[in-house]
Specification:
Its main location: membrane. This protein has one domain (7-289): Rhopdopsin 7-helix transmembrane proteins (Up-down Bundle). 81% of the residues lie in helices and 0% in strands. The protein contains 12 helices and no strands.
Length: 330
């Protein structure tokens, strides 16, 4: 157990964290699979759903790596799958994280144009434009994440490790890279998100011509995205960089700062929260695809089918009366 790690923090990393990974794997595969299937079935509206498909792809790049990460932490941070696969696993995590942030930002801009500049949105947001933007996002995210692979993921004397950042020998350079990565991969998209939805909120409140349903759906989507950023992304980036800074101070002074234990514990929790984005992202599918309305339609079809079956068997007897008669006979 590390010197700066209490038993509670140790238990979180080696018991709770892999349990969270297992839960995310099970729920994430089902929710994202259902969401992507719903998107693909709406082929006529595929131009509006390209960004959603890419979020699903980012999730499916990360979810298959979770069994290996769960095994790693369950075995007291003992990586048995090789250094190359360790780097691939961490690379997939970063593609998922920053790809999701990038495409959620694209959805925010899409909603902004549709509400604030509807005529421009009709001319600009086409299937071709969405595909081009998606390719650019993937290239940018890959370029941002690639340097992470070049840093060693194990310690000099402990080759069985698979650090999610890097070893102590390179932590100072990694901190510089991480701060720049945070600014370009998270802070800038977050500011774009705030700018878009801040303006959207003003327009929705000021204009009485906008349909009430459109207002409600836009505000619900904004709430979902704020939830994603607040729960998954903001704590992770803050405590990741603070934890790296603490390690830099230790490598210089051979002593951890007084606030290290608090930051270390918060960073462990934030690592569990950040992977929940693969579970929370399907909420965006549910909203944009209006799946609750689809479920309501399916329920109505079921009721109609159920009613027809009783009518065909009992003639024109109402369903309520038929059910009452059947119960009384029992």
């Amino acid at each position: 157990m590390p010197d700066n790690c209490t038993s509670v923090e140790y238990d979180f990393e080696h018991k709770i964290l892999p349990s969270i990974y297992t839960m995310v794997l099970i729920i994430g595969l089902g929710a994202n699979g259902w969401g992507m299937k719903s998107i693909l079935q709406k082929q006529k509206k595929v131009g509006n759903n390209v960004f959603l498909l890419n979020i699903g792809l980012a999730n499916f790049l990360f979810l298959p790596t979770l069994p290996f990460l769960s095994a790693y932490y369950f075995m007291n941070s003992n990586w048995i799958f090789g250094d190359a696969f360790c780097k691939i696993t961490r690379f997939c995590f970063n593609l998922n994280l920053y790809g999701s942030i990038g495409f959620l930002t694209c959805i925010s801009v899409d909603r902004y144009l549709a509400i604030v500049h509807p005529m421009k949105a009709k001319r600009r947001i086409t299937v071709r434009n969405s595909v081009v933007i998606s390719v650019m996002v993937w290239l940018l995210v890959s370029a941002q994440s690639l340097p992470d692979v070049l840093f060693p993921k194990n310690s000099t004397n402990r080759t069985e490790k698979c650090h999610h950042t890097t070893s102590t020998e390179y932590v100072e350079n990694y901190l510089k890279y991480s701060v720049g990565w945070t600014l370009t991969g998270f802070v800038m998209p977050f500011l774009i998100f705030l700018g878009c939805y801040g303006h959207v909120t003003l327009v929705l409140w000021r204009k009485n011509t906008i349909n009430k349903v459109v207002k409600q759906r836009s505000l619900k989507l904004m709430f979902i995205l704020i939830l994603l950023f607040s729960v998954c992304y903001i704590p992770y980036h803050i405590f990741k960089n603070l934890s790296l800074y603490s390690r830099v101070l230790f490598s210089t002074n051979k002593k951890y700062p007084s606030w290290d234990k608090t930051v270390f514990c918060a960073h462990q929790i934030s690592r569990g929260l950040v992977c929940l984005n693969s579970v929370l992202n399907p909420l965006v599918y549910l909203h944009v695809m209006d799946i609750p309305a689809q479920l309501q339609q399916l329920l109505q079809q079921f009721r109609q089918t159920f009613t027809r079956l009783f009518v065909s068997e009992y003639g024109s007897v109402p369903v309520e009366q038929t059910v009452t008669t059947t119960i009384s006979q029992q």
